[in-house]
Amino acid sequence: MNRKLVVLVDIGSTFTKVTAVDTGLRSIVAQSSAPTTIEDVSQGLKSALLGLQLDSEELRQARKLACSSAAGGLRMVAIGLVQDLTAKAAKLAALGAGARVLNTYSFQLTEADREEIIELEPDIILLAGGTDGGNSENILHNARVLATLPQPVPVVIAGNRSAAKEVAACFPQEFSTYIAPNVMPQIGKLQVDPAREVIRQVFMEKIIYAKGLDKASRLIDGIFMPTPAAVLRAGQLLSEGTATRKGWGDLLIVDVGGATTDVHSLGAGLPTRAGVVVRGLPEPYAKRTVEGDLGVRVSVLSLLEAVGADAVAQETGWPKEEVESRAALLHDNPETLPENEAEALFDRALGRLAVTHAVSRHVGRLSELYTPAGLIWVQEGKDLSKVETVIGTGGVLVKSADPLAVLEGAAQQADALLELRPEKPEFYLDGSYILAAMGLLAQEEPEAAFDILTNSLDSYKLARREQ
């Protein structure tokens, strides 16, 4: 019987992971991984493909789709007019496109800002500012500053549409400019999805070549998006469903890595309690945040600083000095794996605290406001309190003997009741590492991707502890 074979590839900074699926039978056929060879990613990719142990002709004919976070991932800076409005909207668009946002700038760029952008060496600049028909002076000033950068950088223009062509004309020919719809066409209206798609197109057209990832082109059909964008796409598929499959509704995905902890939420996040007033910028339905100080290996020292060594000591029962010593070892040797139960407990504690703090930064919160009419509750950010599904991924979770102990850090905390975290969620583990793969497959065969993803997650449903 002929299989409908599709091979999904995730070229990461450390490992290249491949998953072969039969889209006809809606099943995983084989999985494999190999160390990523940054100097020539095709070598690591070839090893990973061979590890599938599939018939060579069948493998050759299979469609091969890829995403990548290798070579530093997609590095961007976001620029807007007002920090809490268009600059924040630009950052949300960049994060949703799977980027690592190096910095966000607001108002008019200064010479110091220009020098900092040169040092940051972004892959793409997202230039926003001004509502449609509104302020154009600011975005034109910033375009003129960016046009003097010594090295040309692709620029996505997603600001005041009345000035977009004039802004593009500010750049010399060697700069690649792309015009996207305004990320904030009017005050209080967020429109980030079109800019996200333009960023993905720039990634495919320019960035994979700039990073040398095109060397893998003879082995695959193309690198279609950054890995975080693929994970967010998988979450969106699972949340919304397909033409024939009912979605799971609002959900949260937590990805704990060595360098960062990413949180993805799918849902409107509107108030679930009566009498609550929403304040601030509207939240995107599909939202991603990245916490670069909450990794469990490369960023473990900043994690320790953020959560406190005493908190890790309390979770593990270790003396504070031993906590600091173990963290220094993991920072210097990020490939280190636990060799005994005590070290595994330490990893679980790091993972749980990373999850707790990353979700705290992602979710909305309530605060009291006294008005002439009396006390009211104000919500800033997303209300995720009624989210029923939390999915965990990342090595510290997948390799843990007790992933639930890590993932429970995403749920409501007794000492932080004003944080709008999931109150009574069901927990699932991405035990097969297929979120990114199914995000890729969703681009072409969403029905198959949905079935494979739900079957895999159902097999890794974590039993909740009795309260």
Q: Would you spell out the secondary-structure blueprint of this structure?
A:
Blueprint lengths: L4 E7 L3 E8 L4 E9 L5 H10 L5 H6 L1 E6 L5 E6 L6 H11 L2 E7 L5 H10 L3 E4 L9 H10 L8 E3 L6 H5 L8 E3 L13 H18 L12 E4 H14 L10 E6 L4 E6 L9 E4 L6 E6 L8 H8 L1 H8 L3 H13 L8 H22 L2 E7 L2 E7 L8 E5 L1 H4 L4 H5 L18 E4 L5 H7 L4 H14 L1 E2 L5
Parallel strand pairs: 1-4, 4-10, 5-6, 5-7, 7-8, 8-9, 11-17, 13-16, 17-18
Antiparallel strand pairs: 1-2, 2-3, 11-12, 12-14, 15-16, 18-19
Q: What share of the residues does DSSP label as strand, in percent? A: 15-25%
Number of strands: 19
Radius of gyration: 22 Å
Q: Can you tell me the number of structural domains?
A: 3
* Low-pLDDT windows of residues: none
Biggest beta-sheet profile: 6 strands, mixed
Helix content: 25-40%
The secondary-structure class comes to alpha/beta
Distance between the termini: 50 Å
- Going across the biggest sheet, name each strand in turn: 14-12-11-17-18-19
Shape descriptor: globular
Number of helices: 16
Mean pLDDT reading: 89
